[in-house]
Amino acid sequence: MDFLISLHPLAAALLIFFLRIIDVSLGTLRTISVVQGRIELAVVLGFFETFVWLTAVAQALMGVEKHPMLIIAYCAGFAAGNAVGIQIERKIALGIVVIRMFSSQAGGAIASALSIAGWQPTTFQGIGAEGPNTMIFVIAPRRRTSELLETARGVDPHIYYSVDLVREYHGGATAALSTPADWRAIFRMRK
Fold first, then answer.
1. 152-156: long-range contacts (C-beta < 8 A, 24 or more apart)?
2. CA-CA distance, 130 to 71, in Å (whole number)?
3. The whole model's pTM is what?
4. Would you list the domain boundaries of the chain?
5. Which of 128, 136, 181, 189 places its Cα 20 to 30 Å from the Cα of 38?
6. Strand order in the sheet with 131-141
């Protein structure tokens, strides 16, 4: 780490800033992985998060007496890292969700459209504040939530829905969800 000492103060500040963005982003993803029970992914992310954090702290501590702006860079990187981490997590959208939709007029048509699109909806009849309605439940990968809702809103633009993360699921219509063919599959929690 001797090369870090020789950096120009502005270059050191930028390095600290970007290292903090990286480590806080990794920390955000690690925290989400812990909450979702993704042990392997949390371990890998935790290792790299700590490695990057130690590098940033070491650089900041080496020059903070001469260049107080390194503290500002450290704090600004932390703040920006939170935003970046959240945006990354939204893009990769880890997890499985249950989407609950309620329609007073087009429940059957929504369920049919979802079935045609390859989803496996389950419907229930109920009575809401404004009278009878159909409840449609679908379990789906979180990254495909907007696609599913777009299909449903194409039938009933006034549909009411809620989306919740699923911590565990088993069998039935969800069996196909447990074997994704992407790089994240290696980090999926074994059931």
1. 152/101, 152/110, 152/113, 152/114, 154/113, 155/106, 155/109, 155/110, 155/113, 156/103, 156/105, 156/106, 156/109, 156/110
2. 57
3. 0.64
4. 2-92, 96-187
5. 136
6. 122-128, 131-141, 96-103, 160-166
Phi, psi (deg, nearest 5) at residue 168: -135, 150
How far, in Å, CA of 156 to CA of 9, rounded?
58
For 96-138, write each residue's pLDDT tens digit. 899 999 998 888 899 999 999 989 999 999 888 888 999 999 9
What amino acid is encoded at 1 in this protein? M
CA atoms within 13 A on the CB side of 124: 9
CATH 3.30.70.120 fits 96-187, yes or no: yes
Q: Are 80 and 140 in contact (CB under 8 A)?
A: no
Six-digit token pair at 151?
């299909």
Q: How far is 146 from 186, CA to CA, in rounded Å?
A: 25
- CA 183 to CA 185: how far, in whole Å? 5
The residues, ordered by sequence, that sit 6+ positions from 101 with a Cβ below 8 Å of its Cβ are 110, 135, 136, 137, 138, 152, 159, 160, 161
The two tokens of residue 168 are 């565990």
130-177 residue pLDDT tens: 889 999 999 999 889 999 999 999 999 989 999 998 877 766 544 444
| Residue recorded with tokens 């920006």 | 80
